[in-house]
Amino acid sequence: xxxxxxxxQVPLEKCGIGIYALNLVLKLYEMDKxxxxxxxxxxxxxxxxxxxxxxxxxxxxxSKIFRKFIFRCMLEQFYIPFLAFRYKINVVHSIHYSFPLLxxxxxxxxxxxxxxxxxxxxxxxVKRLYFRFFIYAASLLADxxxxxxxxxxxxxxxxxxxxxxxIEVVYLGKSAVFNTNLDKxxxxxxxxxxxxxxxxxxxxxxxxxxxxxxxxxTAFDKFxxxxxxxxxxxxxxxxxxxxxxxxxxxxxxxxxxxxxxxGFVAEDEKPFLIGGAKIFVYPSIYxxxxxxxxxxxxxxxxxxxxxxxSLPEVAGDAxxxxxxxxxxxxxxxxxxxxxxxxxxxxxRAKSVAQSSKFSWERCAYQTINLYNSLG
Length: 375
What we know:
This protein is of the alpha/beta class. The chain is built from 15 helices and 13 strands.
């Protein structure tokens, strides 16, 4: 089979869906020696530079043009159908909601989550309307829809009357670099880079309202006043949208010396930033999967996360699950992990076992089977 994967949807600073796309392609490259892949990619992205195989063909487009939303939409609707016709493509995999409407090939569409419906006010109007249209269109036109958790699949089927058999759950994975045997000197170097000088609570993810960071800051402020004033809170990740209130809150609470914003963290630094944390907290209101939780569990870091959407699927019984809307519950959970050594060690032991249930190899294996099922 000939399979085209649209990698132009992936940003240069990869998080969430970008991590999924990169690791999926890496494992397809390692595991699938039968199908032929055509990877459509922006020419400023060198993350697939490792590819050198007759089974994988790279097609580049000019990023100075096609990083712009309107032109990328045109590429998707006109250039991808042209490529599908020219190269006799059997399957086109669109990995971020939208896909070509007019196509002479089978369509596979990954819909990571339903935030454009559940939290419409937290997206730019043009993108909200655009992606809502394509999420709906996928229920009518896609040959297969991939969701990355049962929670997302249920959300999708509750809203659209798509055939249930057309919706496949393919869990994400984690890289082997996230483990419990990290080099302490590398951890110290990363801590020094980001001015971390004490034990710290870590949040890792995009800075946006859905991630519930303001509740985390409030809970942290109470914790440091009541229990340990030396602790730092590290908020790692790039800015998303509506983030000004988060930075203003830190100033209003006089926490500038206690709360560290790292900005975007490169993949080669992430394991060491996670591995150095005392507690990992991810109190998101909604997630399609929640890769940072899985990465923290893989490093054996006791974790607190939300009891909503897909997060219980990822965390299992290896993390403390809290109501993300309850600041008191979040604060008490942080105190429990700080004070209860037995609970702390119990979660460390459980976390690695839970994380072993997810792998990029399994993700790629399921995806290859899905492609082949459309042949």
